[in-house]
Write a structure and sequence with these properties.
Layout (H helix, E strand, L loop, with lengths): L5 H11 L13 H18 L7 E6 L13 E6 L7 E4 L2 E4 L11 E7 L8 H19 L3 H25 L8 H10 L8
Antiparallel strand pairs: 1-5, 2-5, 3-4
Length: about 200
C-alpha cells in the first residue's frame, strides 16, 4: 500500500461525502479546496501537540539587532534552560517578558514544535490526520450520524495504530508515557483527540 499523500487524503475526504475524486489539488474543485483546508486545519491542531517527529532542539542566534527569529514553521518555542524561562514566543521571534523587549542579544537553546508538510509526517500520523479530517469534513458538509459512526470506528483504529507507533519509536516509561498522561488528562476533565 503506498504512503498517504495530501492528494490521496483529500480524495478520501471527498469519498466520505460521496463526491468524485480529483486528479490534482489545483483542479479548481471547490469541495476539494474545502477538504484541503480542513486537512490543513486538523494537521496543524494535531502537530501543535508536539510529537517526537516534529520536535527539535535548536540553538538560535540573535541577529545584529539582538532579535532571535524563529523558523517560519514554528508552532511553539520553549527555552530549554530554566534561566531563560522569561523568553517566550511572540509571532515569529522571541520576546523577553522581564524586560518587555524583543531584544535578546544572545543565543538561546529552544525546544521547537514544528509544523510539517503532510508528506513529512510518518505514515501512522498521516493516516490518523486524514481519517480525523475526513470525519470532521463530513460533519461540516453532510452531518450524517450514520457516516459519522462509521468514520469514528476508522478514526479510533487509526489513533490506536498511531499510539502503537509512538510507543515503539519513543523510549517511554511509566513516568513519561504520553498515553498514560492522556488517560490522566481525560480523568480530570481534559480533552481527548477522539471526539
Amino acid at each position: 500500500m503506498p504512503l498517504s499523500t495530501k492528494l490521496s487524503a483529500v480524495n478520501i475526504m471527498l469519498s466520505v461525502i460521496g463526491e468524485t475524486k480529483v486528479s490534482s489539488l489545483s483542479s479548481g474543485d471547490l469541495d476539494a479546496e474545502s477538504a484541503e483546508d480542513v486537512l490543513d486545519e486538523i494537521a496543524m491542531e494535531f502537530l501543535s501537540q508536539g510529537w517526537r517527529f516534529n520536535e527539535e532542539k535548536r540553538t538560535l542566534l540573535a541577529d545584529s539587532d539582538g532579535f532571535v527569529w524563529l523558523p517560519s514553521n514554528c508552532l511553539e518555542a520553549d527555552p530549554t534552560e530554566r534561566a531563560n524561562n522569561h523568553l517566550i514566543q511572540r509571532g515569529n521571534k522571541l520576546y523577553d517578558t522581564n524586560n518587555a523587549t524583543y531584544k535578546i542579544d544572545k543565543s538561546v537553546e529552544l525546544k521547537l514544535i514544528l509544523l510539517l508538510d503532510f508528506e513529512e509526517m510518518p505514515q501512522p500520523a498521516r493516516r490518523f490526520v486524514e481519517i480525523k479530517a475526513a470525519r470532521t469534513f463530513q460533519k461540516r458538509v453532510l452531518g450524517s450520524p450514520e457516516i459519522d459512526a462509521f468514520t469514528a470506528d476508522d478514526e479510533y483504529k487509526a489513533w490506536n495504530t498511531f499510539l502503537d507507533f509512538i510507543g515503539s519509536t519513543n523510549d517511554y516509561n511509566i513516568f513519561n508515557n504520553r498515553e498514560m498522561a492522556n488517560n490522566v488528562d481525560r480523568r480530570i476533565g481534559g480533552s481527548s483527540w477522539l471526539s
